[in-house]
Amino acid sequence: MPRSSAPAAESRADAEHTVRVTTEGAEAGAQILVVDDEKPLAGMIAAYLSRDGYQTRLAHTGPNAVAAALEHAPDVVILDLGLPGMDGVEVCRQIRTFSDCYIIMVTARQDELDKLIGLSVGADDYITKPFSARELVARVHTVLRRPRTPTGATQHVEQPARVFGDLRVDTAGREVHVAGALVDLTPTEFDILATLTSRPKLAFSRQQILDEVWGEGWVGDDHIVDVHVAHLRHKLGDDTSTPRYVRTVRGVGYRMGPG
């Protein structure tokens, strides 16, 4: 099986805003945009993903990452936090204005603040350098296993919407309305809400939510759930002191309120 040439990819990156890296003969799969200004690292990540059958593209600056996401509509963006031209947080914000693709933030900074900032603008997961390429590929596998909006060809039985006061959750169409207004949620935020509303009387632990949304093989800080729930509440207009929709169960986790 032919191997891609990293130097050739790097030279093309200087002339184009993205570089497509594929493995000849690999089965066509999801499209992954790898964004990192460290070209050798980006190339290595792309090579691992290509070997697994994914179609990968590279971008090395913030503005080029936004342009590539807009042009190619990737399924997953692996996004470094420290980028020239525009940092990863702003790139994430801009991508979220036109795409609900999965975003995995990559940071070299160890402090928790960067992780929380990345999640608050719509990232679905994070990973801290140094990491193994195998671990990152596993994260990509995990997010892509999450369900997307079903098509008419595969949706045989229309499920009734889940209603909690002014909150209406359409799991078939993956849409959420509050008082009739559409609420724009990221895929991860929707998946958390869908999990909670699936058994509204059950108090879910963080680990149960992680298993349902991220998958049982996910490894990381379980407080990632708290960050996503805080962002979800904000979008739903939920008062954190007296929430109507997503309630905290002290010492356990979260459950649905009556609305």
Strand content: 15-25%
Strand ordering within the main sheet: 1-3-2-4-5-6
Q: How would you describe the shape?
A: globular
Q: Average pLDDT across residues?
A: 81
Radius of gyration: 19 Å
Could you walk me through the main structural features you see in this protein, from its secondary elements to its overall organization?
The chain is α/β, with parallel strands linked by helices and 259 residues long. It folds into 2 domains: 6-144, Rossmann fold, CATH 3.40.50; 162-256, Orthogonal Bundle (Arc Repressor Mutant, subunit A), CATH 1.10.10. It has 9 helices and 13 strands. The chain is globular and about 50 Å long. It starts with 5 loop residues before the first helix and ends with a strand.
List strands and helices in order, with pairings.
Blueprint: H1 6-15, E1 19-21, E2 31-35, H2 39-51, E3 55-59, H3 62-72, E4 76-80, H4 88-96, E5 102-107, H5 112-120, E6 125-128, H6 133-144, E7 162-164, E8 167-170, E9 175-178, E10 181-183, H7 187-198, E11 204-205, H8 206-213, H9 224-236, E12 246-249, E13 253-256
Helix pairs in contact: 2-6, 3-4, 7-9
